[in-house]
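Minutes, methods subgroup
Present: GH (chair), OT, SY

1. OT presented the first of two proteins processed in the latest run. Sequence and structure tokens recorded below as shown on screen.
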Amino acid sequence: MPKRVIKSVADLFGVLSNPIRLQIIILLSEGEKDVKEIHEQLGLSSSNVSQHLAILRTHHLVDLRREGTHVFYKLHTKKVIDVIRKAIELFELELSEAEAIREIIDKVRI
């Protein structure tokens, strides 16, 4: 696999490694939202949300649209939410496996 592809994937995971950016992407998977709506739903300042949106935009994960004084954001592609869902599924699988192991250990203790 070409090194530039690996670098691009690593960069993507770097951007997605921030919980706030993940929350923003998940919110935007519901549809286009303006900055005010995002910051109100996340309970963060507008400037904080704007900084994270700028990073997402730089990495071509979101697009913006201006309408008067409002700035609206949407996902550039829905494929990014598929990546996040797969990661969540992997994490949930690990949690269920850990729970199963914990139950076995508890049974042995009895």
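2. SY then presented the second protein from the same run.
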Amino acid sequence: MKKFIYCTLILCVCIYCTPKKHILSSKDSNIKSIIENEKLNILYRGIKNHLTIYMPKSDSIKVSGPGVYKESENKYFITPGLGSSMEITITGFVKGKAITDKREYRILNINNPFASINNKIEKITLSKEELANSKIEYFIPQLVIKLGKVTKFRYQINEEEPMVNNSDKFNKSAKEKIFNLKSGDHIVIDELSSGPELQNVDLKRITELTVYIK
């Protein structure tokens, strides 16, 4: 009988001491996830929206939601689908406890981009030196992130045959032509190409940039 009571006591102690996993919401805890991104609570449809997500004091975290992908430790990207908003769930594990935090994002479409120099669009005036040393970029007024790097663009000087430039800056041949321009001459820049990060965005209807020489 004594042996039975002794074994029962040991079993009770073991059960009591076994660690249990608790599921807590962010309302029940002072620990919340931290999301670092330049877009605040906005996601753009058609591109990868990069986020850095972590939870202080957590051993590990899990991020879930439609279109959420993990790139590396604490690095994620989201490619939103249909709808005007979406929610992601961040679950962190702190000392055996699971703490859940939810974040909601607005989803916006990307409008047609402009060809630009220093965010200047449509029709601008530059010196030959300013134009020759400029960088061609995409620009969308309402976008709060930078689009991908331009890998190729087309330019046309006055009424000459259009030429293709394989970079976001003018090559040596293009610069020589620019330095031979006179005041009042113009160059039209259009048909920008980009890397794979913008492969899902329609960049065909880009608004051309016309640069007049001072």
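Chair's summary of item 2: The first strand starts at residue 22 and ends at 25.
Next meeting: continue with the remaining queue.
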